[in-house]
Amino acid sequence: MKKLPLLGNLSPAEFLRDYWHKKPLLIRGAIPGFKPLLKFEKLAELAALNHVESRLVSLRDGEWDMQHGPLAELPARSEPNWTMLVQGVNLHDERADELLRQFRFVPDARLDDLMVSFATDGAGVGPHYDSYDVFLLQAHGKRRWRIGAQQDLTIIEGLPLKILANFEAEEEFVLEPGDMLYLPPQYAHDGIAEGECMTYSIGFRSPSFQELGESFLQFMADSIDLPGRYADPELQEAKNPAEIPKHMLATVTEELNKVRWDEEDVTIFLGEHMSEPKHNVFFTPPAKPLTFGRFMETAAKRGIKLSSKTLMLYRGKNVFINGESLAAGRADKVVLDVLANDRRIDGATLGKATDDVTESLYAWYQDGWVELG
């Protein structure tokens, strides 16, 4: 088992067994010599874009305020107690994407995004908890974290943020650049900047079963096949016209009970659902796309890689990419599995693909889902 400095010289298996979903882990020097991947000015540019999720949180005279982006203006950097949060930075910077991919010991279906928090002196977002696992990597400056495994998760009502009413810290750490703190879901924490600082949050997807259930029923609506129409040739005179007839209720119940699904249906639903891009993700097709022949010729030399915005998953014969699915034959599965796992394939691997797969790759290239290496 390979030990990772990223995990405090634990192997991924050891970390997942002993800490994941269970207890916090402080990792000093998780990434030695780490420096911010983006300057403040670049973060501010991202926060000003319509398709980038961002927030500005401030605390003035004891009053919390939160503004949602796009953030056209920001307070002066010399002003204390304000925080700029930028989600999905990995979608807009290759180095940020490479950092996020270091955490692929957790399946891609669970890996979410890299959020960057820029905070001035004394700033934070209040004591709170997250519903998902998170790694908090200090990128610049210092941040003091206070954490606790409290059961009371009561939220203060009437605030623009979800701040814990009765936060009780059990441990306290000051993180410096390269240090990282892992916290399991619903673990209370409060981070305060000591001077100007940046913190990178690696978050994980944890969909609610309600969300999954609602989406699954919508998914099944496309495959339900219930022929026929309700009829009642033996209808009796209605004594109480407003009462739903017992026969009608029984007949409809019988028909709806014919709706069935199996593991294959759930597999396709889950793959499409978990690979679906977020609403604010937009792909950029090539300005001057190559012809199919030129594309294949160039790809044979340079290979192909997934766009940083593309999520590709698979299970068995089913392959999923950006909310779409296809069933692949055995030979094609070998090629597509390599692309999904390595997020790129070389020309030699591409040469093993059938015409069906090369046509799909070319269509994905035209859509901006894959790029030439």
The CATH superfamily of the largest domain bears the name Cupin
Give the helix level as a range of percent: 25-40%
Query: Outline, from the CA principal axes?
Result: globular
Low confidence ranges: none
Compute the number of strand runs: 15
How does CATH name the architecture of the largest domain? Sandwich
Give the CATH class of the largest domain.
Answer: Mainly Beta
Return the string of H and E elements: HEHEEEHEEEEEHHHHEEEEHEHHE
Secondary-structure content class: alpha+beta
Q: Report the sheet-strand fraction.
A: 15-25%
Round the mean pLDDT to the nearest integer and report it. 96
Task: Predict the CATH topology of the largest domain.
Answer: Jelly Rolls
Secondary structure layout plus pairing:
Elements: H1 12-18, E1 25-27, H2 40-47, E2 54-60, E3 63-68, E4 82-86, H3 94-101, E5 111-119, E6 134-148, E7 171-175, E8 180-183, E9 188-204, H4 209-221, H5 246-256, H6 263-275, H7 292-302, E10 304-306, E11 312-315, E12 318-321, E13 324-327, H8 330-342, E14 344-345, H9 347-350, H10 355-367, E15 370-372
Antiparallel strand pairs: 1-8, 2-3, 2-4, 4-5, 5-9, 6-7, 6-8, 6-9, 10-14, 10-15, 11-12, 12-13
Helix pairs in contact: 4-6
What's a quick, concise take on this entry?
The protein has two domains: 5-204, Sandwich (Jelly Rolls); 292-372, 50S ribosomal protein L16 arginine hydroxylase, Chain A, Domain 2 (Malonyl-Coenzyme A Acyl Carrier Protein, domain 2, 3-Layer(aba) Sandwich). The relative contact order is 0.10.
